[in-house]
Write a structure and sequence with these properties.
By secondary structure, the chain is of the alpha+beta class. It contains 4 helices and 6 strands.
């Protein structure tokens, strides 16, 4: 049989406060320690909740974008069909009073089909924008030519060969445009003659 040492642990006796004031100070210190730990845990929990909310919001946004732009390739192809329909209408001869009735009906029918087609595209977020008269925007327009203009400020779109097409605000196809440039005498001299 082992016999327990009846003498008290001298270290335990030194750590245990004996006076009421010492007991209160030790209790206050422990409470402060626990409150600091609780505050740190609460801060970590709040950060984790915020991170989870951000992850949920990001995932929802990505799912919405994927759903919204999943048809981008199809939309690009369908825009080509709309442009071809517009070109077909533009290739018809101008309306005349003495033209055959079949030509007039064909023009009216194709115009109605184009209006309906464009309405269906717009209902699904595909929009055409004619930039004629607007300032050149490299995010929406592709300059195909420049033309001297004394009445338009430089950079103004004088003519749009095609419209700018967007899907829910995202560019599908830039507008092919002719941009105004200043007359030659208004241009600054070349750099090599300025020395």
């Amino acid at each position: 049989m082992t016999q327990e040492d009846p003498s008290p642990n001298p270290r335990a006796a030194a750590e245990t406060p004996t006076s009421p004031e010492a007991l209160m100070q030790a209790a206050s210190a422990r409470i402060q320690e626990l409150e600091a730990e609780l505050s740190a845990m609460n801060d970590r929990w709040m950060r984790a909740e915020a991170e989870n909310a951000n992850i949920r919001a990001r995932a929802k946004r990505e799912v919405d974008e994927t759903r919204q732009y999943a048809v981008q390739k199809f939309a690009t192809d369908i825009v080509e069909a709309a442009e071809n329909l517009r070109r077909g209408l533009a290739s018809l001869p101008p309306a005349r009073d003495d033209e055959p009735e079949i030509i007039a009906r064909l023009r009216e029918g194709l115009s109605g089909i184009e209006r309906n087609f464009v309405t269906v595209l717009e209902r699904h977020g595909i929009r055409a924008e004619d930039p004629t008269g607007a300032m050149f925007d490299p995010n929406l327009h592709q300059a195909m030519a420049e033309q001297v203009s004394e009445i338009h400020p430089p950079g103004t779109v004088l003519q749009a060969w095609t419209a700018a097409w967007t899907l829910h605000g995202r560019l599908l196809r830039p507008a092919m445009v002719v941009v105004a440039k200043p007359p030659e005498e208004a241009l600054p001299p070349p750099l090599d003659t300025m020395a």
